[in-house]
Each structure stands twice: as C-alpha cells, then as structure tokens.
Design goal:
Blueprint (H helix, E strand, L loop, with lengths): L2 H25 L13 H28 L8 H24 L7 H4 L2 H12 L1 H67 L3 H20 L5 E3 H19 L3 E7 L7 E3 L3 H13 L6 E10 L2 E8 L14 H13 L5 E6 L5 E8 L9
Parallel strand pairs: 2-4
Antiparallel strand pairs: 1-3, 4-5, 5-7, 6-7
Helix pairs in contact: 1-2, 2-3, 2-6, 3-5, 3-6, 6-7, 6-10, 7-8, 8-9
C-alpha cells in the first residue's frame, strides 16, 4: 500500500473516530428537556468538530508519548509532566474550538455567552469528558506500541534463529564435502597402488566433475531432486569404476518428484554408506537401489542395498555422513522429517528419508 493510500485510510479512520461520539451527542437534541431546538448542519458541526479535533490530535499525542513518555518511564515525574502538558494542550484546544462554534450552539443561553464566556464554561463542564477521552487515547496508543515492540522482538528473534540455522547448515556442508573428497581420494590412492592406471585417470576426471557440481551448489541449503540425482549418478559412476561389475545401480524415480527440493548432498552420504559398509565387504558385490516418490504432501527418498546388513544394535555407529544427514534434516525440517536406517526383510539395509514436498526454495528464503 502506497504512502498516500495509507494516509487516506488513516484520515478516514480518524474522522470516523471523532464523528461517531459527536453524532451521538447531537442525537440527544431530539430528546432535549428544553423542548424543540435547532437540529441542522450547524448544530451537528457544533458537536462533531470538537470530537474531530480530539481525534486528529491523537497522532500528535502518539508522537509525544513515544518520544518523551514511553510506557517504561511510567511513574517518573517527567512522565507525569509530559502527560499533564499534553492533556492540557488538547483540553484547551478542544474548548477553544467549542467556544468558536458558540454561534452554532442549539441553545440560546449558550449563544448569549459569547466566545470567551462559552470557552470558560466548557472548560469547567468538559474537564471530565476530555480527561476520559485523553485516557482512552493513551490506552490505545500504549497498547499498540506494546504490540509493535513485541512483533519487532519476534521478528528479531526469528532473524537470529534463521541466521543460526544457516550457520549450522554451512558448518555441516563444510564438514561433509571434505569427508566425501577424502574418501574418494583414498579409494583412488588404493587403485594407484595396485597399478590400475586407466581406472585412476577415469576416477580423477570424474572427481573433477563432481567437485565442480559441489562448488556450483555451494551456499544452497536445498536443490532440485534432479540436480541431486545428477550429482549422485556421477558419484556412483566413480564407484562402478572402482568395483567394476560388482556394483549394480537401479534408479526408481517418480517423474513428479524430480522438481521437489531436497537438502543438498542428502543422497550421496546414504549411497556411500551403503557401498562402503553394505556392499564392499561382499566379494560378489550387490545391488544399490535409489528411490524417490511423492506421497501426498511428503517426499520419500530411499537407498537400499543387498549387502551384509547392519550389525547388532549395540555395535551400530553412525559415521560422519549419516550424522551430517540427521543434523541437516533437523535444522531444515524440525519435527517435519523422518529418517530411518534398518535391515531390509530380504537382506541388506534400507535408508528412508521423508521430508515435506515443496518446489520452492523455502530453506534458502
């Protein structure tokens, strides 16, 4: 909403605030004990204009109170002095308006007093009403000010919480990328010791592509699933060079899930864990199956291997990769995610990640 539009809305609101009590006072003329009295536009203005003066004086009161008499200063001598002066200015100004409108008064006795006489009379008779009007305005002003400060504090806390979460994600990403890099370099060095020169060259070339993709997604908490799968396929291509025909890969990806947002590098640690701890100990290798499907408002990612399975519960340990996945899920989707790692009924292990399905970069925003 533009400044002019907001100003117009505020002016209409202040007009309504002053017009309504003035209209109520004017309506009492129809039940005047003095009999028939004039009830024209001038008499309406006689009652409405002083209330409008109070209404349009309210923004001035608000500015004065915010600057010189905030609520936290209540009880101090200066606080009471500011209120006394502010009320006195409004009280006197309101009755000056009333005195100037004397010729429009509905009763002859008031018109006969003249400006100064009517001003003094209204000063005496309207003190309590003006004091109540001022107190009501102050109550509304202090209430709105307290609400504004509370919202500002909530927004500040929200920004700090978001900055903390972003810092946590950045730290976790910095932890994960060297972990993945060192593991891959270690595999390449082992192949080099065996004299597998061609495979080493191919793995180094593939690793170069992977690092470029990792740098391209740097700073992004979430990426489209299709980008995550592209990175994963390149990583698994390196593993297939290393394990030759011992590693089979199957992708079971639902087309309507490809544009969903997922945590950056969420599948690679799960696949690496399955290859290293599930399939690598088996001489014959096995199958690695990657799945992704939408289930209502949930995206379900799965990584299954046909390897040796998990050790006994007392011997299970979560490595850096799995701990990193759990930590990032907790930061990105608190109370809205699920991560399980368990033995599959047909052998091997199954890792399942369930997160809210969304196609906008909510985490980055």
């Amino acid at each position: 909403m533009g400044i002019l539009k907001r100003g117009a809305v505020r002016a209409v609101g202040l007009f309504a605030l002053g017009f309504m009590p003035g209209l109520i006072s004017f309506s009492n003329l129809f039940y005047s004990p003095e009999g028939s009295v004039p009830t024209g536009v001038r008499q309406l203005a006689f009652f409405v204009l002083p209330w409008l003066a109070w209404a349009f004086y309210t923004p001035v009161i608000r500015r004065i109170l915010r600057r010189w008499a905030p609520l936290e200063n209540a009880g101090r001598a200066s606080w009471f002095l500011v209120h006394a002066l502010t009320f006195s200015a409004g009280w006197v100004g309101n009755e000056l308006v009333q005195g100037a409108l004397g010729p429009w008064a509905p009763w002859p006795s008031m018109r006969a007093l003249g400006f100064f006489g009517l001003f003094l009379q209204m000063m005496r008779h309207s003190l309590l009403i003006d004091l109540l009007a001022y107190s009501g305005a102050c109550g509304v002003i202090y209430g709105l000010e307290a609400r504004r400060r509370l919202r500002a504090q909530e927004m500040t806390a929200s920004r700090l919480e978001a900055q903390l979460a972003r810092a946590q994600l950045d730290a976790l990403r910095v932890q994960l990328q060297p972990h993945f890099l060192f593991n891959t370099l270690n595999a390449i060095s082992m192949m080099a010791r065996k004299g597998e020169t061609d495979s080493v060259v191919r793995m180094l070339a593939g690793l170069s592509d992977l690092l470029r993709l990792a740098l391209a997604s740097g700073g992004k908490a979430e990426v489209p699933l299709r980008d995550e799968l592209d990175f994963l396929e390149r990583y698994l291509a390196l593993q297939q060079i290393r394990f030759s025909d011992r590693l089979q890969v199957r992708m079971r990806i639902s087309p309507d899930a490809l544009d969903a947002r997922v945590p950056s590098l969420v599948l690679q640690p799960l696949a690496e864990n399955a290859v290293r701890h599930g399939l690598s100990p088996r001489n014959e290798g096995g199958l690695l199956e990657i799945g992704a499907e939408r289930s209502g408002s949930t995206l379900v990612l799965s990584v299954r291997d046909t390897g040796v399975g998990l050790p006994a519960p007392s011997e299970r340990r979560g490595g850096v990769g799995l701990q990193n996945v759990r930590a990032r899920l907790a930061v990105l989707y608190p109370d809205k995610h699920r991560f399980t790692l368990e033995n599959h009924p047909e052998g091997g292990t199954l890792a399942v990640v369930s997160i809210p399905f969304h196609q906008e970069a909510l985490a980055d925003a």
